Amino acid sequence: MEERHTDVLTERFGEWQLVFARQPTDGEGQSWTVQVELGGHTRARLSLSNAATAGESESIATLREKARRWVVDYESRAHSGDTDFGSL
Asked: Which of 3, 13, 34, 79 shows the greatest Cβ crowding within 10 Å of its Cβ?
C-alpha cells in the first residue's frame, strides 16, 4: 500500500508559498519536506534527513529556515536571459 504525504502547514514568505508535509517512514520516524512554490508552481523541494529524531515543531522550524535561505539566495543571484525553472 502506497503511503502519501500529509500537508501539515502552508505559509507565505513574501511572494513565495511554503508547503510543509510529512510522510511516515519504515520504522518509527517520519520524513519531512517543504515545497517552495511561486506563482502556483513548485520551484524547490527540500527535505529533512534527521526527521526520525525530531518532533513536528522542530522539523518545521528547521525546514522553514532552509526554505527561507533558499529563497533569499535565489532572489539575491543575478538572472540573465530568458531562463526559467524546469518542472519538478
From this structure: 34
CB atoms near residue 32 (< 10 Å):
24
On whether the CB atoms of residues 62 and 46 are closer than 8 A, the answer is no
Mean pLDDT of each 10-residue bin along the chain, 88 residues long? 66 96 75 92 86 77 96 85 59
Which grid coordinates belong to 71? 529563497
Distances (CA, A) of 77 to 6, 19, 70, 80: 32, 23, 11, 10
Query: Which alpha helices (DSSP H) does the chain contain, by range?
Result: 56-76
Residue for grid cell 534527521 = 50
